[in-house]
Amino acid sequence: MDWIEIVVGFGCNCRCRVCPAASQSHVPGMSAKEIAHWLEEGRERGAKHVWFGGGEPTLHPDLIRSIERARELGYHRIRIQTNGIRCAYLPFTRRCLDAGANEFSLSIKGADAASHDQATQNPGSFDRLIQGTQNLVATDARVEGDILITSHSMTRLADAVLRFAGLGVGRFTFWLTSLFGTQAKGLEPLVPRMADLMPFLESAFQTADRNGAAATTLHTPPCVLKPEYRRRYVHAGTWKLSVITPGSEPFSAEESPIEGGAYLKTCSGCGMRSNCLGPRKDYLDLFGPEEFSPLSS
After folding, report:
1. Does the residue 61 lie in any domain?
2. What is the pTM for the complete model shown?
């Protein structure tokens, strides 16, 4: 185990329809004592880095103290996964940095205010994300962009990369939306078919390359990618990440239905199986297995 992710609570200041945390908003967040316990437990189990997630972790009243405790315990990389709204307020950003946070992964749900705010259902959230990005890039923190892929956002993935690379974001990860854990009805059209997605994902990779940024993709197995892009695929198992949510015991990230996949019968003969989790079950339930085939290497 290299990483521990502590999901400090499920509350959020956005209302994204495709976010599974929304269905858990009634679950109490962790107390400061619980967070401290899991930070200590993580170090005892060998974790070198910690990832604060949610919901929206910046809303947790004990986040700053928890960051300080992580630094005291010797965690090297202290990451906050955030929608960036509170990072728009420079005093808060400075408090996080002074406490010891040194990495931020920013959730990007659209290439502009109209598309992003429609996804978050929070008017003005994109403008605050932009300001938060600028605040963070001006520091020594590592700043990454997590770009959510939906059938609405996929046509403008390259535009999102261009916009945020221009602000100084140096690395992007593309996350394919999942229906697991969502409660809203009629969300199936938001999940794009891989074959429709690929040209737009390839364009986003090319845009990242032209702008000196790294770009990788989750949940899109190597067999749906062109050979030159197959090494861009990563899966949660490569993170060596243990996740703790409120009221739960630790589990490996790849055990989550949102991250883990399902092997097909034909996957047994694939030369890249050892570096692939397979397509997600919720994707197979929507579209079936026809797009996936074994690779020779």
Report:
1. yes
2. 0.95
